[in-house]
Amino acid sequence: MSPPQINLLMISLIWDQRAIPIYFELLPKKGSTNYEEQIAFCNKVLHLFNNCKTVVLGDREFCSVKLANWLAQERVYFCLRLKQNEYVQLSDKVWVQLKDLGLSPGISLYLEGVKVTKQKGFEWFNVARSVGGGSNPTAEPP
User: Fold this and answer.
1) Which residue spans within the chain are E strands per DSSP?
2) CA distance 7 to 24
């Protein structure tokens, strides 16, 4: 008999190199949450930290450029994984997919103030890209 599948969404406070869970929800479904669920979840806690420097660290489920845009508008710092098929704008008319940046294991890249995704209405972010050891691209507001 296999152990039960648990889908838990959690927010933790990082203090002195320790993560202290402050809010969590046991999700009644398998699979990832969507953008609307992630926003609703974050809204339950983020307002408690209005006077604090707040950083959202998202795992592979939180890889939405739309979520990154919302966090930037809320003035929340973030580090989210981006899918390798995501585009970044390197110059006025040059768009490149992250997977095509030609990085090999052990090599990192930092792009400051690039537009992420070709869709209209998205902000400019700083993008860090690392290959190897399971690392994925991350983004933060400039």
Assistant:
1) 8-15, 18-26, 55-57, 77-81, 87-91, 94-97, 108-116, 124-130, 138-140
2) 10
* DSSP character at residue 70: H
Q: Residue 86 is encoded by which pair of tokens?
A: 């995501």
Spatial distance between the Cα atoms of 84 and 80, rounded to a whole number of angstroms: 13
How far is 37 from 25, CA to CA, in rounded Å? 11
| pTM for the predicted model, two decimal places | 0.71
- Whole-number Å distance between alpha carbons of 55 and 77: 5
CA distance 112 to 142: 7
* Per-residue pLDDT reduced to its tens digit, 9-43: 888 888 898 989 988 888 888 888 889 999 998 99
Write the single-letter amino acid at 85.
N
Q: What is the largest CA-CA distance in the chain?
A: 56
